[in-house]
Design goal:
Structural class: alpha/beta
Distance between the termini: 24 Å
CATH superfamily: Aldolase class I
Radius of gyration: 17 Å
Low-confidence stretches: none
Largest sheet: 8 strands, parallel, barrel
Number of domains: 1
Strand content: 15-25%
Length: 252
């Protein structure tokens, strides 16, 4: 695919993200304003739970969905907290939930902890898409990543998400490939979210090409594929405008 086609596809699949500790109401307003572009809307904005109601107001009348995070970023809260936080976020207007699974427990051999956590939060989320964050850059071992994927899918995850964006190694094509193969082999209609470190149109194109190769052309739509990022939007818009992309900054 050429760069403009990649940018167009990636823009439609973008979860425009601000999970900075210093995020405030002004930053949320600015993020929501960027979510509907001259080239079309992003798929969603992803924000801290305390900003869900504000984002709902800011994005009223647009097709942009509102995603928020629970059990974030550690994945270590007792299960009742992400369950309660999910219910509260949905009541305040969230459309999607991104859950950090207890990946450290899986690494210690307790795969069922991931399945049970995902199942409990999915029950609270109901029809709202649930993205299970596996923190693949911390798991490192391909076999562990595959086990995490299988455990999350067994619990009913609607998406497998690579990363929180809060660790040294976030999304990589290698990890994304493992997750895509797990999704394909499961036979479930689950999706992939590559999060953290996607900063350029070329980065986005790499993940789109991976989806096309493993899952088939036409699969990587917002229903099945997301990119979790903050800074990549400027690069995508520059590509679509035929301009030189600005220097990339920090991206989730």
């Amino acid at each position: 695919m050429d760069a403009r086609d990649a940018a167009r596809r990636a823009l439609a699949c973008l979860d425009l993200t601000n999970l900075d500790e210093a995020c405030d109401e002004a930053a949320v307003t600015a993020l929501c304003a960027r979510a509907v572009t001259p080239h079309g809307p992003v798929a969603a904005v992803c924000l801290w739970p305390r900003f869900v109601a504000q984002a709902k107001r800011e994005l009223a009348g647009t097709p942009v969905r509102i995603a928020t995070v629970v059990n974030f970023p550690s994945g270590e809260e007792p299960r009742k907290y992400p369950v309660a936080d999910t219910r509260k976020a949905l009541a305040e207007g969230a459309d999607e939930i991104d859950l950090v699974v207890p990946w450290r427990r899986l690494a210690a051999g307790h795969d069922a902890a991931v399945t049970e956590t995902v199942r409990a939060v999915k029950a609270a989320a109901g029809p709202a898409p649930l993205k299970a964050i596996l923190e693949t850059g911390e798991l490192k071992d391909p076999a562990l990543i595959r086990r995490a994927a299988a455990a999350a899918l067994a619990g009913g995850a609607d998406f497998l998400k690579t990363s929180t964006g809060k660790v040294p190694i976030n999304a990589t094509p290698e990890a994304a490939g493992i997750l895509l193969l797990a999704i394909r082999d499961s036979g479930r209609a689950a999706g992939l979210k590559a999060a953290g470190g996607v900063r350029t149109t070329a980065d986005a194109a790499t993940y789109l090409a991976l989806c096309d190769r493993i899952m088939g052309e036409g699969w990587a739509t917002p229903q099945h594929f997301r990119i979790g990022a903050s800074s990549v939007l400027a690069a995508l818009l520059a590509t679509l405008d035929g301009a030189e992309a600005p220097t990339a900054g920090k991206g989730y």
